[in-house]
Amino acid sequence: MKRGLWFGTNWKMNMTPGLARQWTDTVTAYMQNMPSDHRLFVMPPYPLIPQLLRDTEGTGLIVGAQNCHWESRGPYTGEISPALLKEIGAHNVLLGHAERRKQFDETDEVIGRKVSAALHAGLGVVLCIGEGATLKGKQTETRQFLEQQLAVALRDIPSIQPERLVVAYEPVWAIGVGGQPPQAEEVADALSSIRQTINQMVDECVPIVYGGSVTLQNGRSLLTKTETDGLFIGRHALDPSTFIQIIETAVGERSEVE
Ligand code: 13P
């Protein structure tokens, strides 16, 4: 069995304070019996971060934000600084998600500035990269595309402390309702090329997780047939019991679901 796995969820623009409390109650109860070298992280909408931090204090659940600005203060109406996230106790921040790249025109350069600012503020970073549908199946072009995303996002990062950076490979063609269900074989090649690129860029061992239409049915094969260090789950982790089932099935504590 793989060790030291990371399982995370991005709530996107979902959940309420009440549902969040049910979720944290269920997941933190599960964490008491979880192998201690696994890491669980959750990215709620900003207003729920203080509640989650309070309700999960001392449990080891990593609570992060879904975005931040690259400046630490200033005239940026509607934005949130990494310094403020750090001060309220957030542990990490998700940057480079495909939905932000597409819907909010975030470029690799913008994401690079955010990654640098967040790490300097003392936050951990979950950096998303991934190719769109036009590159699906084109291995050489996909490899170059992912290398470019990584090179720009990480170019201002001289050194990374252990556990401060996680890379999430989320191919755009697999994300969300309407996304194509991923086959382990087709993500395996991308994951190993990301691993090679990262090894050339930073000394630390950076966990690489897979995200995009992870389900109870495919979690185990994605985990066991690729070099992934974990799974990053969207809509199928909003129900805490399903999130736990996906984890348990993937790591082999339950028999594989047909
Ligand atoms: P889905 O699991 O809903 O495809 O979303 C994945 C994702 O975007 C995680 O950031």
TrEMBL record:
Lineage, opening ranks: Bacteria, Bacillati, Bacillota, Bacilli, Bacillales
MF annotations from Gene Ontology: isomerase activity
Localization per Swiss-Prot or TrEMBL: Cytoplasm
Involved pathway(s): Carbohydrate degradation; glycolysis; D-glyceraldehyde 3-phosphate from glycerone phosphate: step 1/1; Carbohydrate biosynthesis; gluconeogenesis
Reaction(s) catalysed by this chain's protein: D-glyceraldehyde 3-phosphate = dihydroxyacetone phosphate
The protein's name: Triosephosphate isomerase
PANTHER family: TRIOSEPHOSPHATE ISOMERASE
Biological source species: Alicyclobacillus fastidiosus
The protein's assembly and partners: Homodimer.
